[in-house]
Amino acid sequence: MKIQNLAVIFVIIILPISLTLSSYTKSQNQTLHLQTAYDSKLDNATYDALKAFQLNTTNSSTSDIANSKLRDIEASVNTFFNSIASNFNMVGYNQSVLKTYVPALVYTMYDGFYIYSPYNNDLSSLTNEEKDKLKDPKATFHDGDRITGLKPYIHYSCRYKKNDIDVVITYSLDNYITVQGYIGSGMNKEYVVKSGYLLDNIEVNGGIVEYRNILIEGETLKQRFKPDEEEYVYVKVNGIKYYKKNDGWYSNLNGEEIKTDMEYKEQNEAAKQYYKEAKEFSDWVSSNLGDLTGNDAYDENGDSLNSRFGSDKIFDFNGGNNKSIEDPNSDFNQHRLEVIRYTIEKNLSIAIANYNNYSSSTTTNFQMPKLKEDEWTKIINNVSIISFLQGLSIGGKVYNGYSIITNTKNDEVVSDESIYLINNTEYYKPTDSTLDNLTSYIGVLNKDFERRTFTDDTGITKYFFPKNQLGSYSSIVNQFEDSDLENVQYNNNLYSYIDDKVTKRYINIAKAYYTALGRERYSMYKTNTNTDRKVESGKRVYEDEGLKAAYNQQNIKK
Fold first, then answer.
1. Alpha carbon distance 463, 450 (integer Å)
2. What is the pLDDT of residues 373-405, one digit of tens each?
3. What is the pLDDT of residue 555?
4. Disulfide check for 121: which of 32, 145, 324, 526 has CB 3.0–4.6 Å away?
5. 91 near 340, Cβ under 8 Å?
6. What does the alpha-carbon distance between residue 521 and residue 524 come to, in Å, rounded to a whole number?
7. What count of other Cβ atoms lies within 10 Å of the Cβ of residue 434?
8. Distance between CA 10 and CA 8 in Å, rounded?
9. Cα–Cα distance between 47 and 80 in angstroms, integer?
């Protein structure tokens, strides 16, 4: 056969293969491009939603109250769908269409989370009279209606049973827990509801309080509440700041100045109270629940969760395994994070799987994706939004994406890294190596540097910054990554860093940090405390219908 004939045969065979491979490669590139573009659009919409939530809570003095928080979250949900519709509008998807491809949005809060997804309205618990009213065609809700909205708040809770202990413990994003249930047997059986922070290393002697060998004292705090005004002495109670003027105490409610009849001491004792009450609560937990382990955990059906949580002691006080209970790598914190993850994962999987029963306009099989370990670390340590977008065609495959955006500046949680230190001109992270022992520092919540709103005399809403200090260039603006130039020392354990690097040399830095951390945590609004922070015989009185419901859901009966 002539070589020309072989060449023709080769071309006839290879050309179709080359064209097919070229088409396939082009299709795969287009699919990859679309997937990357969709990931970016979903991230942008989720970021917009979280930013809206942050702005609403920052500029609202009532953002911690349940109804107000629901309002802020619903506004954030609307922002998400408006943003995602705007991002996807160029590719032919409008908001109503995109909603059918979003099986769930998750808002992780301080001690629980909300899931935004469809559900059937169940009015079976209403009285006959109430049901008759809802038969009116003008009624907003009807039994069996399909509604898309926020489902009831789900706490990070777990049930424990051991000997004479049968309790539900609700965890949070820090070391604050609530214990509810029965302890003891027979005549000594007692129903308890107790909440507090778990801490080691506290010494209380009369009015003297020390934490990690640092003396905790009262302090006088000042801040501007309107631009071009002097700084006023203030105290923070249940998440609201009250500032002192000549004729009394005021709060700033959504930009408007409101006078209160309450009287407060100018000397702020919140930090001392935080450590004193933490000491009392920690001693109680150690005495009554100190033997609980992961083997004693049960789910709502009464099935053991020992294969999930292991056999380590949960409340490892007094330096168990050479760790304090508040250390990030303590057995308590590892167990706490496992419970939070398990609760979110279980309920979210159910919500997404159930979406298949509600979605009639798409043939997508909605499923809970497998999240990476570093993504779970972000979720269970921060206030965050998790969004899901599934079922969109991107050429060679179906798009199944999710986005996780976290926020560290909010009223929900005061983390170890939420405290900045200020002098007269700048604010710093407590791990900034340029801090010195010759300067007097005050610890401030990072959220206090965010822009606020106020209403001027003409009724116009304007903005201002409550703090005069600017962020340190080396600490806040530009952190050096070169190990030889690094100013901010990265450390997963701030307690350890301050003990090792600061306390031995710069006591004033440790004192400012621990005082601010205690003050801000004690001053937070919590749903499982009375709003007036009622105190009786040195003990807070706790009431929370939501926690009672969570307790009842765990099948614990009197």
1. 10
2. 889 988 988 899 999 998 887 776 788 889 999
3. 41
4. 145
5. no
6. 5
7. 11
8. 5
9. 8
